[in-house]
Amino acid sequence: GCLVFATTSNRVFAQTLPLSKLRMVGSGVFIALLVIGTCSLATGERFVEPAAGEKPHIVMILVDDWGWANVGYHRETPTKEVQTPNFDALCKQGVELDQHYAYKFCSPSRSSLMSGRLPIHVNILNAAPDIHNPEDPVSGFAAIPRNMTGMASKLKSAGYATHHVGKWDAGMATPDHTPTGRGFDTTFGYFHHDNDYYTEKVGRCMYDKHGHDDITDLWMTEGPGVGFNGTIYEEEMFKKHVMNILGNHSVDTPLFLYYAPHIVHTPLQVPQSYKDRFSFIDNKDRMIYHAMVAFLDEVIGNITAKLHERNMWDNTLIVVSSDNGGPEYPGGGANNFPHRGGKMTNWQGGVRVNAFASGGLIPTTMRGHKYEGYVALADWYATFCSLAGVDKHDERAEAAHLPAVDGLDMWPVLSGQNLTSPRTEVPLSPGLISGDYKILVSHMLQAGWTGPQYPNTSNPTGGIKAAMDCSQNNCLFNIKEDPEERNNLASSQPAILKHMQERWVAWNATAFNPNRGKAWPEACQTAVEKYGGFWGPFLP
After folding, report:
1. What CA–CA distance (Å, rounded) separates 483 from 510?
2. Of 402, 529, 490, 453, whose CA–CA distance to 289 is shortest?
3. What angle do CA 120, 415, 433 make, to 5 degrees?
4. Measured between alpha carbons, how far is 22 from 3 in angstroms, rounded to an integer?
5. pLDDT band of 213, cuts 50, 70, 90
6. CA of 351: how far to CAs of 102, 183, 424, in Å?
7. What's the pTM value of the predicted model, to 2 decimals?
8. Each residue's pLDDT tens digit, 474-530
């Protein structure tokens, strides 16, 4: 509530009121109204001083399935296979986040970023967005529970123009689950894990005992993206939309742009001209994957050039991250060398991801630094709230008895005010990173390593067949001294192992795991009958 001092025509009084009651107080007409405290008349959010003084423009870029070795700044020995000059330049101009962690696959990472919760407290399933449990009106859906406040809602309450372009994969069931329901003024993208880059179609669905093929997944703010599907390469379409947003934005208004490219997720598709540039690579999947990364790198160059052109650069923070490690399984095309494993696993290759913060907002004294402290995707929620001057606390979720925001403010780190990361632990579901150590507590697939070029002629389809059982005695690694996870310390460090086991048990006791339901026929029916063959919200 807010402490209100009001003068009416016949009396003066002070009263603490909830925001919903903050209208006319008393029987007279207001002459003056003073609201004491950090609160908003319009939204119920509590506002504070923006951390960097004025509210900056914020551009969040979440790359899909981007391998550790598929960017130039991670290649000690340069190779013409990796052509990422714009990513590399941005990283060099900013702060490289060397210990940045995501979930091991798509939807939980995106749910974490948008909600500010660690995946263990919001979503650990890669469920399709058409599931529903009617007995749980709050959490009986894919991805983010209905009553959690989205990152964009926070920034919108602070006066930001908010736009989403690209992959969503954080819910679809109701309007509340869509990007606009989470606070974005506009959205142009798709709901599922992926779609076809040229037709935007994805999978098939079933209702009334009939299957329906080729449902299109492309949504534009309040309805299907009719007329855009099947026109050009999807990432080109997203690029044009991003450039229109930047070109038409009123620079006096703070901007939050969340660009979530489809690249480099499957299907491995890219225009022929990019394939031709990489035709020297002798493995098809590797060739197309590198070509896709090069396409995205050019998009990044266009974005930074437009920010400079519009005189927005000096007051802009750009955060770039992958949503998980690169897929090294058959058909994935990625490479996480020298890390062990990849997407779908809790090896470092699956959860330690490419990430950096850049833009003119980064102080000159911090540019070019490699930061070794822990950062999680959930932390950007709190960081962006701090920069926008809005409290990260989620009252709506609290009222629904949902987990609180876990994100920690990383602006003191990025600005050089305090180089000690506030994050000391990262739960992996299952497993835990704490201090210098990491514990794994399940049967681990992809328990091997790749080489600098992968997939290759000796393993043309990709895939690491080795496995390691960490479910019984657990596995322990010092990931600071042994980032490639080659030395299992479980037997030689019993005291540390015991401590890590206790910490994981404590974290696991807080896990949020509602019954989200099953595929709901109305989702397919709505797509076919209401939206003309497009996916979209299927419940009120």
Report:
1. 28
2. 453
3. 30
4. 10
5. confident
6. 5, 28, 16
7. 0.92
8. 999 999 999 999 999 999 999 999 999 999 999 999 999 999 999 999 999 999 999
